[in-house]
Amino acid sequence: MAAFDVARVHADYERHHGDRAPLFEALCRHIEPESVLYPGSHIDIAPSVAFDHVTYVDSDKKANRFFSDTGAVEELIRSKRDGSSDSFEVDFIHADYREPLDIADGSVDLLVSLYAGFVAEHCGRYLASGGWLLVNNSHGDAGVVSLTAGYELIAVVDSRAGTYQVSTSRLDDHLVPKRGGEPTIESLHASGRGIAYTRSPFAYLFEKQ
Ligand SMILES: C[S@@+](CC[C@H](N)C(=O)[O-])C[C@H]1O[C@@H](n2cnc3c(N)ncnc32)[C@H](O)[C@@H]1O
């Protein structure tokens, strides 16, 4: 069997999905989470470029193989960090995030939900009160969160040509359905896709109450 080359596999991934490090670097100028949880991460190690303690979770075999080569993953992350802090921790849990994870409730400062289903619903319990949730609308998770008590929208992240801007202005103009009628949590579950809103930022930043 051919050797699994972490750097090459990740370079292929980045070619298709883009480099998200600028997203987390932009976030890091607004929030300072000590611990980050990224369920449904696949091999997107971008949060580790900006944050020091990240736990990745995925049920995928290839993601497991990727993170199993701890040394190569750490070397890759180190090569992408600016060198300001060499002490960072990367954990990977090979699991279905809908099942209980070996993480204490309320112990995480930033939960990331990008293109991986209803992460916030299943993993919101791990988020500390006052912690942040970065979530996009691709699979409807942002819509579900906006309809769930206990989360306040505090910023949106806009993206243009590979750059990301965190904005706190005109938040009330967001999450307004384009076509009449509010979605429900049930309708979002049923479609598994986000509905169209009048504004479409790359992602939303909520604070857990
Ligand atoms: C489309 S990829 C997105 C990967 C990454 N979040 C990104 O934005 O590039 C979705 C990932 O979520 C994972 N995933 C989906 N449902 C999952 C579940 N219930 N438990 C664990 N991983 C899951 C898949 O295995 C896949 O790696």
Structural notes for this entry:
The chain is an alpha/beta fold and 209 residues long. The chain has one domain: Vaccinia Virus protein VP39 (Rossmann fold), CATH 3.40.50.150. Helix content is 29%, strand content 25%. It contains eight helices and eight strands; from the N terminus they run ααβαβααββαβαββαβ. Strands 3-2-1-4-5-8-6-7 form an eight-stranded mixed sheet. α3 links the parallel β1 and β2. The chain is globular and about 50 Å long. The N and C termini lie far apart (49 Å). 36% of the residues are buried. The model has no long low-confidence stretch (mean pLDDT 95). The structure holds S-adenosylmethionine. The site of S-adenosylmethionine (SAM) has 18 residues, from β2.
Number of domain modules: 1
For the residues shown, what is the average pLDDT? 95
CATH topology tier name: Rossmann fold
Radius of gyration: 17 Å
Low-confidence stretches: none
Secondary-structure element series? HHEHEHHEEHEHEEHE
What are the distinct ligands in this entry?
S-adenosylmethionine
Which structural class should the secondary elements be placed in?
A: alpha/beta
Biggest sheet descriptor: 8 strands, mixed
The CATH class name reads Alpha Beta
Task: Write out the CATH superfamily name.
Answer: Vaccinia Virus protein VP39
Strand line-up across the major sheet: 3-2-1-4-5-8-6-7
Which SSEs are present, and which pair or pack?
Elements (H helix, E strand, L loop, with lengths): L5 H12 L3 H8 L7 E4 L7 H4 L2 E6 L2 H8 L1 H11 L8 E6 L13 E6 L5 H5 L3 E9 L5 H6 L4 E10 L2 E5 L17 H7 L11 E6 L1
Parallel strand pairs: 1-2, 1-4, 2-3, 4-5
Antiparallel strand pairs: 5-8, 6-7, 6-8
Bound molecules: S-adenosylmethionine.
